Amino acid sequence: MMAYVELIDAQKALKIGIPALVRITMVKELEGEYKSNVVDIDLEKRILFLSIPSYKGRFIPIPKGVRMTVNLFDRSSIYEFDTISLGVIKRDNIYVIPVPFPETVRKTERRKFVRIPLYLEGRFYLSDEPDAESYAFTTRNISAGGMMMVVTKKYLKMGDIIYIDLKLDNELSLNKQKSKIVRQDEQIEEGFMYGVQFLDVPPALEKALVRFIFQKEIKMKAVK
């Protein structure tokens, strides 16, 4: 759950490379949420450079003058500010969108790993050997650090190491992700419910998981 919001100095929060989500609501043709990230920062000119936002792999150039809200995030916080596109330019052979560097941003504290409800089917293995037998499961919720899953035909115990295959969307999947059973709930009608912790997650995958959860979280807030 969200904890609290405060205004902080933007220079303390906005760093090169931090993932971003650009949200446009004022221009009907561009209305939506798009992936981006901070490519560069020029503090002398007070300009922040965003990568060209994208949606399902398609780049969305934001014309000069379009107002938008930018959300940036790390493990523990979301940073948000309202801004305006200064057009599309080429900087160091990369097309970017410059926006005015804000004085302050709205910082929202989050739990280390926000957990969201999500129902997906996947497979797990008791070994990472190529010919290992797989077992079906269904997720109940997921975070960047783990998930709750329901298993119908295989009893597991606390401490068991398993390997997970799970497709989250067209761009993100867990492939034989090493994991550990850290919680065992009472048996329910659908089967056995287990809490799973992801182990040895590569930084790039963790970053992608945080981004995925964040986008789902924003969409759920919008529906409410």
What features would you describe in this structure?
This is Pilus assembly protein PilZ. It comes from Fervidobacterium pennivorans. There is one protein chain. This protein is mostly beta strands. It folds into two domains: 105 residues, Pnp Oxidase, Chain A (Roll); 108 residues, predicted glycosyltransferase like domains (Thrombin, subunit H, Beta Barrel), CATH 2.40.10.220. It is 11% helix and 50% strand. The protein has two helices and 18 strands. The strands form three sheets. It has a nine-stranded antiparallel sheet with strand order 1-11-8-7-2-3-4-10-9. The protein has a six-stranded antiparallel barrel with strand order 13-14-15-18-17-16. It has a two-stranded antiparallel sheet with strand order 5-6. A hairpin with a 2-residue loop joins strand 9 and strand 10. The protein is elongated and about 60 Å long. The mean pLDDT is 88.
Shape by Cα distribution: elongated
**Lateral arrangement of strands in the main beta sheet:** 1-11-8-7-2-3-4-10-9
How many independent structural domains?
2
- What is the typical, i.e. mean, pLDDT? 88
Residue windows where pLDDT falls under 50 for at least 5 positions: none
Estimate percent helicity. 10-25%
Total beta strand runs? 18
CATH third-tier fold name of the largest domain: Thrombin, subunit H
Rg (CA only):
20 Å
Q: How many strands, which pairing sense, and closed or not: the largest β-sheet?
A: 9 strands, antiparallel
Output the number of helix runs: 2
The assigned structural class equals mainly beta
CATH superfamily of the largest domain: predicted glycosyltransferase like domains
Instruction: Give the termini separation.
Output: 14 Å
Return the string of H and E elements.
Answer: EHEEEEEEEEEEEEEEEEEH
CATH architectural designation of the largest domain: Beta Barrel
Name the beta content range.
over 45%
Q: Briefly, what CATH class of the largest domain?
A: Mainly Beta
